[in-house]
Amino acid sequence: MVRRELKERVTAVLRDKGLDADETLRRMREMNVVMEGPPILQVLLPDCNVGHVLSFCCPGWGKGAFSQFLLSAGYSVEEEDDQTVELPDDGSQDCHTGCQHVTTLRNGDGCTVTVNESVSMSPLVPIFFAETTASINYVSADGVACLYPEMTLYKMALTNYARAFLDEDRQAGMTTYIANGFRIVDTCENTHNHPPIHHLDSLEEELPVNCQQKPRRINGPDALMVPFTKGGFVPVRPFVRWRLGYNWRLENGALRNRDVIISVESEGGSFIEYNHVQPRFNLEDALYGHLDVHFDEW
After folding, report:
1. Confidence band for 290, pLDDT divided at 50, 70 and 90
2. Domain span holding position 13
3. I need a labelling partner for 58 at 20 to 30 A (CA). Which of 32, 122, 130, 169 fits?
4. Rounded Cα–Cα distance for residues 241 and 262 (Å)
């Protein structure tokens, strides 16, 4: 019953965008594409209406073919946003949004969708830059994933301090969640204590699940994965590990930001790390370098 109900909700989301659900999910499977955005939260919590922007996240190799599918379904390109353009006060190594390129498309009925090209071979990377954990959910071709279910399903969420976004923009984005009954926790220090920052790695397993500083993995026990059919596999490959962005207080009382960190499984079982010191747009050479993630930098 749960699987069928969730599939019907996903079908309704796609139908509202003028898309055939079965064909869209088939194309998503072929091109390793996932859906994210406010409509996916509404799949999990039908009474929540925090927005209508539906995004399809894809690896670079799947972007062209999936965009062509949307064009054949009646959409046309409205705007192209090259996320690789360096800003004067930014620089290519300062911060990124998880996307290389964002395309906005619109159909004749006024429906819009976006196609987010990931900086990684994993389509999931852009999802982890959402302003709050309430938005860190996705729909794959095989099911629905809620990555912070212990909070999201009870209308509680952590702020995600991704360095790419201004605090005022992040706070403005919270207003719709609060209006829908969400309790937003700016810092998890308001709910529990932390060990000293230099001891976090050794005490990682002791951190509670509702902690901004706790690394998670897509195939970990904390995520809720509901396949549309029995035996379906929802954790999208390549597997991803991540840690939210957060502010931590120094001994002098000042706050220091730690950006979102994501690492993606590569060949050989090693992980490639995507963070603010990783050049955003020169990752090709690293893809097959079998780089190990350095958890002491988390």
Report:
1. very low
2. 2-297
3. 169
4. 6
